């Protein structure tokens, strides 16, 4: 049985309370190990260790910090297959996806911020003999909290900029998917990071995560997860004026205009809807289609989605794996029942799947398309975070924008049109932090990433993250006196 411990000061440490959670493979329903369910004592130990390590880490040359990040990226690449296998075991996603998306992105994140740390510069202003220069100092110890859908991908997206900027980190991976973070800890030691620069606390959010958010030693919280938990964290951080970056839920529209190019449209919409079983915060969950194209595109989507049979994530032909847990599968099936109760027509899918063989007890749900629901229905308003997508026709450009914006969320939107003017007009009016035109999930790591409204606060990516993890201080020098 695997036992996943905390990682504090480059040591693997048992939880003080000797409390453990089961690690379950969602593709088989089998328990394969245990993970520490830490508490405030473990959190305090990790924060103190990170605080002790921080001054020396900040004093180290950016070039040296960068070299360590590159060495860690090298080790991730050398160990990519082991990491991909663990990611699939924890999440149920197809191994092909772990291999081609999740793990390559981890080393890309590490390398990107290894470079950013050496290129990050600050401003100076000389005017009428007065010199202003701005220094950007690390914050100290920062807390990084990440979810289960892209476990190591999102964890590394936070840790890398935090340490590149000279902070030390206590990170809390999701208790549902702790294995790759634990493996990364071994690589952190092998890469030669000083003890205490990166620490990992495993366990449930309210028990292990809350004390990392509330401690006076924590100078900033970078959180990715649900809007509910993000809201709670914001309440905790506000009285202490603790810096906060929140990446939260979404209910993303995909808008197909009447002139959309057909060549790859249906393939692209299917991928945007069902990649990672719909468990990507950027997945399209409301497809809005120009009325004159509606029936044709709906029928093609239904045909394609109907052929996607969820199956064993280890088989190379599998495009749809398991959902991450039994609880989450039940929540998704509950949302499909809500859609039926609201009068929605299930066009395809809607049911649990029991693949033959070792995955018969896994948590699989068919890709599901639903129509005939009002935009104000629960199904169209609440995040489901699974392979469930609604289809809605629209009459004209303005109607599409109204439907797209009828949401508390504002993370991402996609827009499919050949009309450049229309694309710019619509992108300008859509309430989302990211708008893709004729593509989906194309990412340049330099760009700001994040949502508006209930989807987030602040932005990650590129220099935005480096700014988040530093405190600017302006120093004004007047050589000629006042
Ligand atoms: P979640 O909010 O339940 O948990 C996220 C993390 O927060 C986990 O590590 C969890 O243990 C921790 N946590 C929970 N309660 C806590 C508390 N009281 N104090 C401190 N930490 C706590 O989310 P989830 O179910 O793991 O992930 C799914 C959600 O994440 C979806 O809503 C999805 O949209 C969102 N998400 C957003 C983005 C984005 O970039 N906007 C990316 C991926 C996922």
CATH architecture grouping of the largest domain: 3-Layer(aba) Sandwich
Q: Indicate the radius of gyration in whole angstroms.
A: 23 Å
- What is the CATH topology of the largest domain? Aldehyde Dehydrogenase, Chain A, domain 1
Low-confidence stretches: none
The structural domain count equals 2
Bound molecules: nicotinamide-adenine-dinucleotide
Kindly state the percentage of residues in helix: 40-55%
Class derived from helix and strand content: alpha/beta
| End-to-end Cα distance | 71 Å
Q: Write the CATH homologous superfamily of the largest domain.
A: Aldehyde Dehydrogenase, Chain A, domain 1
Description:
With 482 residues, the protein is of the alpha/beta class. The protein has two domains: 2-248 and 455-475, Aldehyde Dehydrogenase, Chain A, domain 1; 252-437, Aldehyde Dehydrogenase, Chain A, domain 2. It has 15 helices and 25 strands. The strands form seven sheets. It has a seven-stranded mixed β-sheet, with helices on both faces. The termini are far apart. Bound molecules: nicotinamide-adenine-dinucleotide. Nicotinamide-adenine-dinucleotide is lined by residues 145-149, 172, 174-175, 204-206, 209-210, 213, 224-226, 229, 232-233, 247-250, 281, 383, 385, 411, 451, 456. The site of nicotinamide-adenine-dinucleotide has 30 residues, from helix 7 and helix 8.
């Amino acid at each position: 049985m695997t036992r996943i411990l905390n990682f504090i000061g480059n040591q693997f440490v048992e939880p003080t309370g000797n409390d453990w959670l089961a690690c379950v493979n969602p593709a088989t329903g089998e328990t394969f190990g245990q993970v520490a369910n830490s508490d405030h004592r473990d959190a305090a130990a990790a924060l103190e260790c990170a605080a002790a390590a921080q001054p020396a880490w900040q004093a180290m040359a950016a070039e040296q910090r960068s070299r360590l990040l590159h060495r860690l990226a090298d080790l991730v690449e050398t160990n990519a297959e082991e990491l991909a296998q663990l990611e699939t075991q924890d999440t149920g996603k197809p191994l092909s996806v772990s291999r081609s998306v999740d793990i390559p992105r981890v080393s890309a994140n590490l390398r990107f911020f290894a470079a950013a740390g050496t290129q990050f510069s600050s401003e100076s202003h000389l005017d009428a003999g007065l010199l202003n220069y701005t220094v950007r100092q690390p914050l100290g110890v920062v807390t990084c909290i990440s979810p289960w859908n892209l476990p190591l991908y999102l964890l590394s997206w936070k840790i890398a900029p935090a340490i590149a900027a000279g902070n030390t980190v206590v990170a809390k991976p999701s208790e549902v998917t702790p294995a790759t973070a634990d493996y990364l800890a071994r690589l952190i030691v092998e890469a030669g990071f000083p003890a205490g620069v990166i620490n990992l606390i495993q366990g449930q959010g309210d028990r292990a995560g809350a004390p990392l958010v509330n401690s006076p030693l924590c100078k900033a919280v970078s959180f990715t997860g649900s809007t509910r938990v993000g809201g709670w964290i914001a309440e905790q951080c506000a009285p202490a004026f603790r810096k906060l970056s929140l990446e939260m839920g979404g209910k993303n529209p995909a808008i197909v205009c009447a002139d959309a190019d057909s060549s790859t449209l249906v393939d692209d919409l299917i991928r945007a809807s069902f990649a990672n079983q719909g468990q990507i915060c950027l997945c399209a969950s409301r497809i809005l289609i120009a009325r004159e194209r509606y029936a044709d595109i709906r029928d093609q989507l239904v045909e394609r989605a109907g052929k996607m049979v969820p199956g064993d994530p280890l088989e190379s032909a599998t495009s749809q794996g398991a959902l991450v847990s039994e609880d989450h599968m039940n929540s998704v099936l509950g949302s499909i029942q809500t859609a039926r109760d609201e009068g929605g027509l299930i066009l395809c899918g809607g049911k649990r799947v029991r693949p033959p063989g070792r995955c018969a007890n896994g948590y699989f749900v068919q890709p599901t398309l639903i129509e005939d629901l009002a935009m104000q229905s629960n199904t169209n308003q609440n995040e489901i975070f699974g392979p469930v997508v609604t289809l809605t026709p629209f009459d004209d450009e303005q109607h599409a924008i109204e439907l797209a914006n009828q949401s508390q969320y504002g993370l991402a939107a996609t827009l499919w049109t050949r009309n450049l003017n229309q694309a710019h007009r619509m992108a300008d009016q859509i309430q989302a932090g990211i708008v893709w035109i004729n593509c989906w999930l194309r990412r340049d790591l330099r760009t700001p990433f994040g949502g508006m409204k209930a989807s987030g606060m602040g932005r990650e990516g590129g220099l935005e993250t480096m700014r988040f993890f530093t405190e600017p201080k302006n120093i004004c020098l007047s050589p000629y006196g006042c």
